[in-house]
Design goal:
- The protein is of the alpha+beta class and about 100 residues long.
- The protein is about 15% helix and about 50% strand.
- It contains one helix and seven strands.
- It is elongated.
Length: about 100
């Protein structure tokens, strides 16, 4: 028992060092639903001019809280473009070609 008590502070210190740090930074889901057809069947999605990914039907992207200028561009030859300004303070849904 005495040996256990000697190593207990060391064990607690190791556990505290391995625990994940909480920064308090919140991340929210941006779900993009693409109902478009033709040249906009697949779109590229950008947030603040940074590429997030491609969406054919439904995709989710995870963004920290803040203001974003969203842009979706069709990948076809005559693909169109949609834009939206959004403040991420909760999970959001963006439906294209509604």
């Amino acid at each position: 028992m005495r040996r256990f008590l000697v190593f207990l502070p060391l064990f607690v210190a190791i556990l505290m060092a391995c625990a994940p740090a909480t920064t308090g930074r919140r991340v929210f889901e941006l779900r993009v639903v693409n109902l478009c057809g033709g040249d906009n069947y697949t779109v590229r999605v950008y947030a603040n001019q940074q590429y997030l990914g491609r969406v054919t039907t439904v995709e989710s992207f995870y963004l920290p809280a803040g203001q974003y200028e969203l842009r979706a561009e069709g990948t076809g030859l005559n693909g169109g473009m949609a834009t939206r300004s959004v403040y991420m303070d909760a999970d959001k849904l963006w439906t294209l070609c509604r």
